[in-house]
Amino acid sequence: MAKSGAQVAKDHGIDPKEFRRFLRAAPSWNNPGPGKRYTFEEQDEATAIKGYEAWKVSRQPVKRTRETSAVMTLP
Q1: Closest Cα partner for 48 from 56, 33, 61, 71?
Q2: Is 3 helix (H, G, I), strand (E, B) or coil?
Q3: pLDDT digits (tens, 9 = 90+) for 27-66
Q4: What are phi and psi of 34, to 5 degrees?
Q5: Quick one: CA torsion of 23, 45, 11, 29, rounded to 10 degrees?
Q6: Residue 5 is inside which H or E element, if any?
Q7: What is the value of pTM for the model shown?
């Protein structure tokens, strides 16, 4: 049975709005169906969640240290 993007997000404890951001950012998922709604079959759901996790890790802010802050300042 097909699920909506919001339902997939809720089932996995993800904010639906952030999940939609991932779907729009990923070229492989940037093709919503009728009414601009995403629908997922079971195999698609697993792939989407795996891709979301990788996307989320890649978006994590870099923690600044004293050394990186010194390098980033202009003279």
Answers
A1: 56
A2: strand
A3: 887 777 777 788 888 888 999 999 999 998 888 766 666 6
A4: -60, 140
A5: 10
A6: helix 5-11
A7: 0.70
